[in-house]
UniProtKB/TrEMBL annotation:
Similarity annotation: Belongs to the carbohydrate kinase PfkB family.
Molecular-function GO term, any one: ATP binding
Taxonomic lineage: Bacteria, Bacillati, Bacillota, Bacilli, Bacillales
Protein name as it appears in the record: 5-dehydro-2-deoxygluconokinase
Alphabetized SUPFAM superfamilies for the sequence: Ribokinase-like
Species of origin: Cytobacillus oceanisediminis
Domain Carbohydrate kinase PfkB, chain residue ranges per copy: 14-317
Amino acid sequence: MNPLQFEKDRPLDLIAVGRLCIDLNANETNRPMEETCTFTKYVGGSPTNIAVGSARLGQKTGFIGKVSDDQMGRFITNYLEKNEIDTQGIKIDQTGAVTGLAFTEIKSPEDCSILMYRDNVADLKLHPSEVDEEYIKQSKSLLISGTALAKSPSREAVFLALEYAVKHKVTVFFDLDYRPYTWTDEAETAVYYNLAAEKCDVIIGTREEFDMMEKLLNIKESDDHYTASRWFSYRANLVVIKHGGAGSIAYTKDGESHRSGIFRTNVLKTFGAGDSYASAFIYGLMNGKEISKAMKMGSASASIVISRHSCSDAMPTEAELLEHMETAIYETV
Ligand SMILES: Nc1ncnc2c1ncn2[C@@H]1O[C@H](COP(=O)(O)OP(=O)(O)O)[C@@H](O)[C@H]1O
Ligand SMILES: O=C(O)C[C@@H](O)[C@H](O)C(=O)COP(=O)(O)O
């Protein structure tokens, strides 16, 4: 059973909050960054990718965030508009902050990494006074992402967005999106992740991300069932733990669990898997699918995106996703 209820009659399905960045994906694959010379520029940032995935699937999607007042910032906003994402919640920085850059290194399909340039980035300058309660109230759901908690004032802006969401019965999805280089202190990281997760209805993360949150509390089990059950005494109804090529598992507050396999694909690079999974999983849940079907949709979207060069621009439409689910080979794990 799908344990989530969404308010009806709201003009937006999903508002994502947080990082708006640029991905520079290596054109020359199967080599280290030291030997990579050319890159293709795409809009990126985990919540941005999820928003694009959501819009491509036909969800009415908005964004709350901050961009730099330069060509890069305008490139991002223009791209979102082209993808029919509502940008009224996107503010323009006036302090000279820059757009975060993610250079990707594709040494092999299994060995990819990201080199981030994130000093003085505009996305972390979003101020609580720039989060509009009336805007959040117009949405059925809100997606937050952990990296926006890394620094003030973006951290407080996210917590305020969470308060408004809870007040107005907006279902909150939390994609943990833990990027170590954005944080300086392990305890600070885990404290803020745990505090935010307490206020969320659905928590989605990898095993490693949940381990990071549990280490501070001296929880050593690394056990999916235990991890999920910890959140059911707070707001969560649904917790998803992702295991890369070994699929994912979801637990619900009423004691059910669902395991999802993967769709075999010709992997070009592994990044983008989590964001595409989240966008199609959320789409499935919001469109009345059973949890296991929504997970399958997430896995299908991930298998499409990891076979393509970009993350945002590779997100499938609903027709592409459904066709892939019919034709690609699904493997239970
Ligand atoms: N090698 C792979 N082949 C097919 N699907 C994959 C592969 N790796 C990941 N996926 C899909 O993407 C989902 C999310 O991947 P994962 O690596 O766990 O997340 P993240 O990108 O956030 O680290 C998985 O649950 C799975 O459905
Ligand atoms: O999140 C970023 O800033 C970089 C992303 O745009 C990038 O494409 C990526 O790492 C995707 O993350 P994943 O889906 O968790 O693999």
